[in-house]
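#struct-help
A.M.: can someone run this one for me? Single chain, 159 residues.
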Amino acid sequence: MSTEILTQASSRRLYSPEERARRDATIWTTVQGVLAPLQFLAFLISLALVLRFMATGLGYEAATISIIIKTAFLFIIMITGAIWEKVVFGQFLFAPAFFWEDVFSFAVIALHAAYVWALVADWPAWEQMVIALAAYAAYVINAGQFLWKLRMARLEGTS
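D.P.: on it. Structure tokens below:
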């Protein structure tokens, strides 16, 4: 029985023909395609600055600014991604095709928000950076989820 369930789940297409047409026609697909690599670039720069601060104690301000920029990208991409899901799937979040990616995105957002809270609450710098690193680890997992879905969509499009 579990094999049957797995077969049904794996045979489920990521997009129906109508959803694929809406995905390909909407400007929000392009917006996501532009924002995602920009967010990743912001992440790489920020990660380097955070690790530099943690290793040397230097550059707290630069690391902090970079985390705020990365967090802003995250919130923008989440809002535009919700709009994309509404256009493509008819609901703002938790469309079946992206349910678990959306669930984990909320964990990523919560960790980034926890960092902002720690910053505003004036927690010690080291603790702020640890929270940022936890947020970044979650972001990497979530980005991997979305890259996997992108690959699945490309493979689905070629079959």
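A.M.: thanks! The chain has six helices and no strands.
D.P.: also worth noting: Residues 18-158 form one domain.
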